[in-house]
Amino acid sequence: MEEKGIEKRTCIRFQIPGATVSYEFKEHVEEFSPLVDMSRGGLKFIGKKPPEIHAEVTLNISIPGETIPLTLHGKVQWISYVEAKDQYFIGVQFNPYGEKEGENYPGNMVKIIALEQKYAIKERAKTEKFEID
Asked: 20-127, superfamily in CATH?
């Protein structure tokens, strides 16, 4: 039995400065929403019109310096409204990686791992103290 309040994430979350998310669900498309953070398993972004919880979404992640956006499919897991800014934080869990319909292209995992290595290490270097022998 799963206890409430226990952190379920096992992936390293990292930020990509200047990255944006364009997403679509049903008939709605929203472009250039700020990416808050991401991991191998999902991401959090800011949107003006959120999809419903558990809605299937297609995400196009634009990363500065990259010419082609990273396209991923996932499911909305949570939404949090920020009244002061009239916007929503939206949490999406990526679909599994594989060759079946609805799954994410396995090469995208390789790309996310490369982004994690590039950006998560920079973030840790800013906050961690290192001892030199």
From this structure: predicted glycosyltransferase like domains (2.40.10.220)
